[in-house]
Amino acid sequence: MKSREQEYKEIFIAEALEYFDALNRLISELEKKPQDDQVLAEIFRMLHNLKANAKAIGYLQISDVSHKLETAFGLIRNKELSFSDEVVGVLFDGIDLLGELIKSIDSEQQVEIDPVLIRNLDIIVDSLSDSTVELAKVQKFSTSRNLTLSDLIYIQVKKLDHLMNLVGELIIDRDRILSLSRELDNDELKMVSSHLYRITEDLQYSVMDARLVSIGTLFNKFPRVVRDISSAEKKEVNLELSGQDIQIDRNILQIMTDSLLHLVRNAITHGIEKPELRAKAGKPKAGSLQLSARSDRESVIITLTDDGKGIDVAKVKKAAVERHLVAADVADSLPDSEVYSFLFEPGFSLAKEVTEFSGRGVGLDVVKNAIDSIGGRIRIESEKGKGTSFILQLPTSIAVKGALLFEIDSIFYAIPLIHTDSVVALDKDELHEVGEVLVADIKGETVTVVYLDELLNMEESQMRLGDKTRLKGQVQNIIIVSYNNRKLGLIVDKLYRQQDIVVKPLSKPLDSIDLYGGVTLLGTGKVCLVLDVPAITKYFVNKR
Amino acid sequence: MKEKTNKKEGTDAAEATVSGPDKAAETALASAKEGQASPEAAKEEMIHLIVFKLGAEEYGIKIDQVKEVTVTPSVTRMPRTPDFIKGVANIRGDIIAIMNLEERFGIRSVPLANDVNPHITYTLVIEAKEYSIGVIVREVPQSLNLSMTKIDKTPSFLQDINIHENYIEGIAKVNNRLIIVLDMYKILTQDEIRELKSN
Predict the structure, then answer these.
(1) Which of A155, A176, A343, A440 has CA 20 to 30 A from B135's CA?
(2) Mean pLDDT of all residues in chain A?
(3) Where is the region Disordered (chain B) (predicted)?
């Protein structure tokens, strides 16, 4: 794999060459109709971008020459310099020089900049009034012109989406062929299908790779955002970015854009205190906001940390009790992580007392929904007075995900791995009937457990989620899933393997059923339902 | 253009699937195709229906709303969906919802005739505006070509029926047969789509 730096360089060259081509076209156009303001504006814009890009990546020669040209065109635009033949000649020379410089980036050879040309440029820029200075003749740079096409192409995301879908279909068929070849036990077929397996896998990763963008493309928009919000709030905030090089699927980043903006805005308006308050609390006047990304196996973790006032757990508990989300006696004993999850309840923040005091939660349910929709997770860590962190775990790719396959009442189901914490087998005696649910001690933690067959298949009026006699067999296979900082054990009939699946969304009219995130086809051709953990958890909470 | 191609593939494929267990469906569709090929030949305006039984009555759907007829493939039940949704099935790589219209419309089921194999059902794949659904029928659907004039579009009783239940497009009368023509686009009301969601 190429280094990031190499990739940036290539992108810069491709873009710069595009500008170069366009500049050539535009300046020729301008020569014919020198009064066209639109063309001038376009030239101006391109030179400006080129200058900025070159400077950012450290090609100072290019940015210098662009700067000079930009100044010249600026003068022309302001009618301070006439677009005479002499001037045009110099400008063409200047643009040719730019082209040479851009092309030389990739070759070892250094371009000798003709000092005469630079002088000419300086003359038309600086001594506009002094017409006595002669423009010197410049030796032509490129006597033999080579026409080249760019190494990069732009492509619509839509086309990549389509490609990804096709790969998904292909993978489903590949798995089917693979399982058929095993059944038929034909060596030649087995060989071909294992080759097919490798090729499609390669194809899948290539397409996924083509859809990846650096998180920096989003992160780099935040310094300005933070500046604007904090100056509006009369606060001082230092933003630190890290992990901009981490790669993520473009569509996932697109979906996360609004959520991240929301969280950042929240952190500044409600998290970080005003300078005088911070001084009183013994904190530096300027608040700190850290936005970082890192890779973790198949997901990307984005963390937003502020050093503001933190979340007041007691206030959140009080509001949750007032809103009947939890009983008062239960609320007292809840761990903080579960208390924070109330913040994601729809409309929770609307309660006046919450927004005023703890301040968090404005529309956090919207953030949560966005993350749910791409199969990600969000969690909060906070310490009163010290600050708050939002930790977002996002899949790197939408279409293909690791999942755990299992069976209930002879129907195949899958749960995406991003929601599974662990898998345990417990004896029936280790499950206890408490209230109207089952609970078990799992690695020292008391976890609510639900028999999926009962939850999914029993008539709703006869559902008894806390009745152990409904269970089949002595040993129970339990998948521990985690959603909204809450753990839930799902008892399944049979547990199968872990497998990469291609989730097909349900088509209309079934797409409105929340319980299923989609379906996938197994190698056997059987339909497997993909359970949506957030929806299952909510359904369970409602039925309890 | 694209739609046309799909339809043709669908029909061909349906024949392939059906020909094994029962030739009758094939004949039905073959004649259906002929009908499609030469609509201009007939002087009066003709309508082409796929006719099937629900309960004791005959129902018809316009052929251009029927993508294919196939022996019902294995259907995966989807818990917590309304009863008339039998589940989802994989029909040529598309996962579609399979519905039982007898349950959907509250039609009383009648015992099967002796010559009908109780173990095989057929699925009409129907393309409504926004979605494809499969409709299960127990007997081989037939194809019927009739003049538009035979369809009574506004029988008086339709006015008595709740407007939201207005999935009946008209009543066709041919040779002492009465066929209820369904408007498949209205087969699922908005309410029902919402009902799916509330579960």
Answers:
(1) A176
(2) 83
(3) 1-39
At A211 the three-state DSSP class reads coil
ipTM: 0.72
Q: Across the interface, which of A411, A456, A504 has its CB nearest the CB of B95?
A: A504
Mutate to test the interface with B, among A454, A508, A532 (most CBs of B within 10 A): A508
Nearest chain B CA: its distance from A367 CA (Å)? 21
| Amino acid making up residue B71 | V
Alpha carbon of B138 to those of A100, A471, B50: distances in Å?
76, 36, 14
- Give pLDDT, residue B158: 60
The CA-atom distances, in angstroms, between A37 and each of A42, A79, B93 are 9, 11, 56
Query: For A337-366, b where at least 16 C-beta lie within 10 A, e where not — what string?
Result: ebbbbbbbbeebbeeeebbeebbbbbbbbe
Sequence-ordered list of residues with C-beta below 8 angstroms from that of B80, at least 6 positions apart, any chain:
A456, A513, A515, A539, B199
Residue A361 structure tokens: 């939660």
Provide, as residue numbers in chain B, all residues whose Cβ is less than 8 Å from the Cβ of A504: 95
Using CB atoms within 10 Å of the CB of residue B182, give its burial: 0 to 12 exposed, 13 to 18 middle, 19+ buried. buried
Measured CA angle at A461 (ends A460, A465), to 5 deg = 65
Q: Classify residue A388 as exposed, middle or buried by CB count within 10 Å of its CB (0-12, 13-18, 19+).
A: buried
Average pLDDT over residues A45-52: 87
Q: Which of A169, A504, A512 sits opposite B197 (nearest CB)?
A: A512
Min Cα distance A174 → chain B (Å) is: 13
Whether pTM exceeds 0.90: no
